[in-house]
Structure formats: C-alpha cells, structure tokens
Amino acid sequence: MKCPESGVIPVDKPAGISSRGVVDVVSRALGTKAVGHAGTLDPLARGVVIVCVGHATKLVDYLHELPKRYAATFLLGRSSPSDDLETPVEEEPDPVRPTLSAVEAAVATFRGDILQRPCDYSAVHVDGRRAYRLARKGKPVVLEPKPVRIDRLEIMGYEWPRLDVEIECSSGTFVRAIGRDLAESLGTRGVMESLVRTAVGPFALHACAPLDAIDPQTVRELLLSPAKAVAHLPFTTLDADMLPLAVRGFLLPLPARPMQLPEAPAIAALDASGELVGILKRLDAGGYRLRPNFQGAG
Questions:
Q1: In terms of residue numbers, what domain contains 59?
Q2: Is residue 212 annotated as a catalytic residue, yes or no?
Q3: Which of 10, 57, 68, 210 fits a disulfide with 52 by CB distance 3.0 to 4.6 angstroms?
Q4: What is the reported pTM?
C-alpha cells in the first residue's frame, strides 16, 4: 500500500540551525517520524537541504549521488581547529599575501579528481565515533585522505584577506577543507567565513521552500513526487503485466527500452501514471529486482 505522504521537500536552510533541525520542523508539520535529510549542511551555512518523507527516505543514497554547488568565502592568513569561524581563530603574525595570479594558478590544481583529508571537526567516523566529538574533547583525530571530485572552482572576487569562490563538487567534499588546503598551497592558512549551498543536482536554492514557510497548512503542498529525487537515473515504465511481478519480488529481465544501458546498476521504475514504485536494482546473478519496493514490503 502506498504511503499517502511520500516525497521530497527542497528547503532553504537558514544559518544557525542544523540539518537535523530542518528535519524536525518538517516532521512536526506532517505529524510523522518518517522524515530524514539527504546530506548534512553545517549549522553555520545556509542553503539547500533535501528533506525526504515516507518512502522517499529510502532514496537518500541516490540523492547523495547528485553534485552540489556552493558559494563560499575564505579568509586567508588565519586558521582555526574547525577550519571555519565555529572555533577560535588565530591570525598569522606576518602572513604571506599571495597575488591574484598566484591564487588563480593554485585554484587550477584543485579542479578534477583530488585526494582530500576531511576536516577534524566533521561527522566522519573515527573508530565508531564522530570526529568532531573527539576534536572538541582535545583528542587526536587521524583522518585519511579520500578521493573527491571538484568539477568547478572559480574565483568570484579576491581582496586580501577575503577570497570568494563558486564550487561544484561531488558528494562528500568538504568545502572548508578546500579553503584550508588552497591556503596552505599558497604558503598561508585559511578559514571559511561563510558558505551557501546553492544547488543539489537540479534542486536550486531559488526554488527551495524557506524554512519559516513550512507549517501544517503548507507542508503537503510543498511535497514533490519521489520520482523527482531520482530524475537523474534511467527509468522504465512497468506495464500491467510486469508491475505485479515486480511488486511481488520476482526477478525481472532488463527493461526493453532503447535508452537503457545493459550495465545500468539502478533504474527508476514507474507505473502507468508516472508514479515511482521503486528502484530496479541489478543483481550480480543477472536481472533486476525492485529494491526498494514502495508497493511491497521492501
């Protein structure tokens, strides 16, 4: 049976509230606990947070695949334990003041596939504990670099000590770490002064619901179809013969549509009305099975 309230709500999170706080607002407005978010945004930052409701909470992993866009401002010549203004900032007594041309040359080396060490003050797990919890207690935090991709990194303004940039990057990229590492490559230090997440995939900030506009009277009107969350996946429409088999958990062959690639690991499955009924996951043994299955138990 379909959940009567399933979908996604792109929210404009204001600075000063956590992503969990955004979820709580939507949860109270709907009167349900079946609410989550697809990607944490730091409390000091503003911007797009995708809230998932009902069945759509099972689509979080697919939303995580979407690239993210940011507008960030870094302050050079200073540092902090958290790489932003959340913790005490220490200014360098005689900092290097790189020229614009030097900054432009350094920025170019950060585009593409890079290895990035996560910030000490982050939600990354270290031996089963969040890194920021260890860092706040003054305990050593050892985080290994991980691969991320920066598709766009452009300078929008530079006047010492302030550097404004726009970024498009893969999920899991720490914008604070970009400022930290970029400054170090220039022979100085850097902290993030401000951050705005301007888009998550097709969900742009200008189209998001302001958090203070979400209440029991408006929240249901703001819910977008779960299919919007996986619009980046290949899709197929299950006909009247195939749909009941998929819902009952049968193994299905590759949907016979020209747009589908044989190696597609996941395909959005729609019914005749265009509603998302689940995700067809490719199995190692061959064929596809509906997981998650919004009309069945899985």
A1: 7-66+202-229
A2: no
A3: 57
A4: 0.90
